[in-house]
Amino acid sequence: MHDIKFIRQNPEAFDAALARRGLEAQSKHILELDAEKRKGQTQVQELQTQLNAISKEIGMVKSKGGDASALMEQVKSLKEKKATLEAELADEGKGELGLLLSSLPTLPAADVPDGRDEHGNKEVRVVGQKPALSVNKPKLHDELDVAKALMDFDAAAKLSGARFVVLRGVLARMERALANFMLDIHTREFGYTEIVPPFLVRDNAVYGTGQLPKFAEDLFKTTNDFWLIPTAEVPLTNLVADSILNEDELPIRMTAYTPCFRSEAGAAGKDTRGMIRQHQFSKVELVSIAHPDKSKEEHERMTSCAEEILRRLGLHYRVMLLCTGDMGFSAEKTYDLEVWMPGQNTFREISSCSNCGAFQARRMKARFKGKNGNENVHTLNGSGLAIGRTLVAIMENYQQADGSIAIPDALKPYMGGVEKISA
Question: Which of 86, 115, 201, 244 has CB 3.0 to 4.6 Å from 205, enough for a Cys bridge?
């Protein structure tokens, strides 16, 4: 949600920031709707003044034994009118102004590069080197003998259709091992508090983090009005919704390992092979609730925490600063971590770490007691990491000439002594 005060004071700057996102100017229409809303607020005040005056008049009439029934009917009518106006003004998310403001993405940070799509992203750093594999031609993860034996897409299709997978045996264990490995590092070394949140949430939660109302088709919804979480960002961030925190509580750092559910409505035909893009996948999520003065620093820290997982697994990766046309709806700045996939001969996204500024906080009414009164917190989220894609990266980077997959040293303590995976 956008700060209407900022738009009133800086309409040209607001439109210029939207233009960087590839959107048309909106300030004129927004300010017209805002003027109507403020007019309604004035009308409410005027109605209250009338009610006060008539109520006083009723008291005077009754004190003299007169008939105040006509005045009381007038009070009833004015109260109904006032209640209707107040309901319209209070319904910020569904009124015309609220719907417009909630449909616009957050404004990009000044240091975000301009661009229309991923081609405008900027490489920040490259870490490590491509692995020296013992195979002549690296295979895709789903072509490996191990995958053919333990990664069952046909069985999943019988149960659920396309874009699902059944993992068996040691691959299933590796997924669990990766989650434990990541959670241990984030909680023991980086100070994140582990949370087990609900996987089903109501409208207000997905509205608060920005998935509603614009991206409903990308989500799964139950018949009794729950949404399946697309990421643990939704329940974790909303833990501070409708709250006024103490300044000394910040930053709040949380992590969770959850399944994630996405309809992938906007990704038809993309990455249909293997485990890259699934309707259901697991992820270890990082969320920070930060002081506005510290959120940039917290963003760099969170990104570093996610990078550490890749470093310890010995995976070659790069950090990309996303351009204005490739950022998510709620993010004002995003770093993508892209891991090298030998079988695909390219880098693939394995984590996005975003600073959402006060955008989500305004929608959730998440604040803290600052020096100047109650202020909006800043919210940040990142993958630390996506489990399925990490599994795929290990399979492709650690494939051996005999068809087996070596286990990274950092993961061996979590694998019960297993040194490699063979078909």
Answer: 201
How many residues would you count in the chain?
A: 423
Alpha helices in 21-152 (DSSP H): 27-63, 69-90, 96-103, 145-150
Q: Would 4-103 and 118-421 be classified into the same CATH topology?
A: no
Distance CA 262, CA 230 (A): 5
Which strand ranges, in their side-by-side order, compose the sheet holding 366-370?
A: 243-246, 366-370, 373-376
List beta partners, residue 301: none
Taking a C-beta distance cutoff of 8 angstroms, is the pair 388, 407 a contact?
no
What is the 8-class DSSP label of residue 113? Answer: P
Residue 164: band (very low, low, confident or very high) from pLDDT cuts 50, 70, 90: very high
Roughly how many angstroms between the first and final C-alpha of the chain, as a whole number?
A: 51
Give which of 217, 200, 390 is closest to 312, Cα–Cα.
390
Indicate the pTM of the whole model.
0.90
Domain 4-103 class in CATH: mainly alpha
Instruction: Return the active site residues.
Output: 262, 277, 349, 352, 389
Fold of 118-421: BirA Bifunctional Protein; domain 2 (3.30.930)
Q: Is residue 338 helix, strand or coil?
A: strand
Using only the alpha carbons of the chain, give its radius of gyration: 27
- What are the residues whose beta carbons fall under 8 Å from the beta carbon of 195, sequence distance 6 or more? 232, 235, 236, 239, 254, 255, 256
Using alpha carbons, select from 410, 398, 406, 408 the residue that is nearest to residue 422: 406
User: Any idea which residue has 């569904």 for tokens?
Assistant: 94
Per-residue pLDDT at 417: 85
More confident residue, 170 or 417: 170
The torsion angles phi and psi of 286, rounded to 5 degrees, stand at -115, 135
Give the separation between CA 112 and CA 279, rounded to whole angstroms.
30
For residues 213 and 102, give the distance between their C-alpha atoms in angstroms, rounded to a whole number. 7
With a cut of 60, say whether residue 93 has pLDDT above it: no
Interatomic CA distance for residues 316 and 313, integer angstroms: 9
Task: Dump the DSSP string for 203-260.
Answer: HHHHHHTT-TTTTGGGSEE-TTS-EE-SSTHHHHHGGGTTEEEEGGGPPEEEEEEEEE
Beta bridge partners of 347: 340
Please write the tens of the pLDDT for every residue from 180-233: 999 999 999 999 999 999 999 999 999 999 999 889 999 999 999 999 999 999
